[in-house]
Amino acid sequence: MEATPSTHTTTPPSRQRPPASPVPWWRWPWILPLALFSVTFLLYAVPPYLGMDPDQARLPIPESPSWFFPMLITHIFGGALLTLLVILQVWPWLRTRHPAVHRWSGRVYVWAGVPLVGVPALLIAPFSSTGGSVQISNTVWAALWLTFTLLGYAMARRRRFAEHREWMLRSFALIYGIAFNRVLLIVLMTIMSPRLDTVYDGDFGALALDVAPASGFLSWVLPLLFVEWWIKYHRRARRGRPSTRAA
Ligand code: HEM
């Protein structure tokens, strides 16, 4: 049974579960575009790996270590599951109307995400064939995701729900880094394309290789910055709201 906030309770507001939303499910205009974006990304990103053939991979697979490709496959299938779970987790209607679904999909997000997505990402990141900058950026990205996710889980276990929400929002931002990377790469390539002939001698591959580290880094840093702004904005808004507790 869900604990409902009461005006007579001594539980601090940060430890109270949010009240059920009176707003119908279709009044969250961003949830449908987010779901469409996620599904479109998965339909593009995952199919080359379904046959488990390293030759079909979108990135060059290093010969050593031998476990790179199995880890990458585990990471991608786990990542597909997490991309779908994030939609459920951030949907306010589902979170407040069906808190049990939120709790269970949240447990799957952490318990499946850490061993299937975060740990494999951390293991393969130092071996990326795209060079040292990408290896460093990807390693920091994976380490931060594991840290934010585990902190979010720990805060929920301690019933510190305000902090739980903030850490999980940071974790979700990092999960979307990979999908955002696809969009950002196209944007950066378009911006740099006037230099194709002058700087890169018309070699499109050289241009893509040059842009990839910036795109890979910005694709998780920018969503994280956006979420940090969002968290601060909502903290300020909450502070400005009149208290519902009896004076
Ligand atoms: C915190 C989240 C994530 C981190 C830290 C992360 C990290 C990584 C790393 C280190 C690689 C290897 C890149 C290389 O060798 O150059 C990789 C590849 C890949 N990841 Fe993730 N990833 C994350 C989330 C996801 C999610 C949610 C998906 C969804 C399916 C996903 C799908 C892929 C795919 C498809 C590749 C292969 C590259 C490609 O085909 O373009 N990742 N990721």
Protein described:
By secondary structure, the chain is mostly helical. The protein has one domain (28-50, 63-240). 68% of the residues lie in helices and 0% in strands. The chain has nine helices and no strands. The radius of gyration is 21 Å and the shape is globular. The two termini are 28 Å apart. Mean pLDDT is 89; it is low at 1-9. Residues 45-46, 58-59, 75-76, 79-80, 82-83, 117, 121, 124-125, 128, 130, 134, 138, 141-142, 145, 174-175, 177-178 line the site of protoporphyrin IX containing FE (HEM).
Write the layout of secondary structure elements.
Elements: H1 31-45, H2 68-90, H3 92-97, H4 99-124, H5 132-157, H6 161-175, H7 177-192, H8 196-200, H9 204-240
Helix pairs in contact: 1-2, 2-4, 4-5, 5-6, 5-9, 6-9, 7-9
The structure holds protoporphyrin IX containing FE.
Quick overview:
By secondary structure, the chain is mainly alpha-helical. It has helices at 31-45, 68-90, 92-97, 99-124, 132-157, 161-175, 177-192, 196-200, 204-240.
- The whole-angstrom Rg is 21 Å
Structural class: mainly alpha
Bound molecules: protoporphyrin IX containing FE
- The overall strand count is 0
Residue-averaged pLDDT, rounded? 89
Number of domains: 1
Helix content: 55-70%
Helix-strand string: HHHHHHHHH
- Terminal CA distance reads 28 Å
**Main sheet summary:** none
Outline type: globular
Strand content bin: under 5%
